[in-house]
């Protein structure tokens, strides 16, 4: 998970550099083409099966749709916004997962965790407010990333039980690319600038290929992490990504979050860490309750 948090911001840095001359749609498509080109030979080299189990096909398509929308929204955002600001807004994703668990799966979520979620969303508004004033509605795009990436994580957890991580990444990349091609053609025909067919030239080929390489390595790391480590262990480490994203954004673009943005980031991270702490506490209590023998009923005589 640490590898994911260090490498994932390089997707954003490369995307922001490429977006100077390449449309968001083309960046998104090339990302998945590069990912498929990397993962295909690896599947063969490792002798892993290429065939998907029937139960995994629908989940793979759903995973592909979620990662396409998540990627598109975030690249569109960082094209004009500082990376750290966009990422901070997207970090409401753990709260979205919690709410989806409650609403869709009937999971028990206590008042304190719901209050932490509300505080986290409040923190995101602190980041959105100056960004919205400066960049307009595009400042809301990271919220789209948060929702779709939360769904992507939930689908990945389920799919990791059915498919090895390497073929999973390959199939997701292939399906994503196949979905992107007609969407790009339609968007270009309709004159949508973000979906214009703008082939990369010169140094911009380097940036779009780096997007694909960084995405491949980081998402493989995340998939393995979700497969072999409990979520309660991984979740706190995810906040390292804000630190690395801020560092890369400052080194490459000279962007550094303002005071209100830092306050919002602090609220988001603090709320997220409280949710993690509370979930660990509840898991510990449940484990103790399972291990504690129930006293035998006493005879009234």
Task: Give descriptors for this structure.
about 300 residues; mainly alpha; 12 helices
Indicate the topology.
Blueprint: H1 2-18, H2 24-45, H3 54-78, H4 83-90, H5 93-105, H6 111-135, H7 141-159, H8 165-190, H9 203-228, H10 231-238, H11 240-253, H12 259-291
What does this structure look like?
The structure is a single chain. The chain has 301 residues and is mainly α. It has one domain (2-287). Helices cover 78% and strands 0% of the residues. It has twelve helices and no strands. The chain has helices at residues 2-18, 24-45, 54-78, 83-90, 93-105, 111-135, 141-159, 165-190, 203-228, 231-238, 240-253, 259-291. The termini are far apart. The model has no long low-confidence stretch (mean pLDDT 85).
What does this entry show, briefly?
The protein is mostly helical.
| Poorly predicted ranges | none
- The coarse overall form would be globular
Number of helices: 12
Average pLDDT number: 85
Number of separate domains = 1
* CA-atom Rg in angstroms: 21 Å
Q: What is the end-to-end distance?
A: 59 Å
**H/E series:** HHHHHHHHHHHH
Helix content: over 70%
The total count of strands amounts to 0
Helix/strand/pairing category: mainly alpha
**What portion of the residues fall into strands of 2 or more residues?**
under 5%
Largest sheet: none
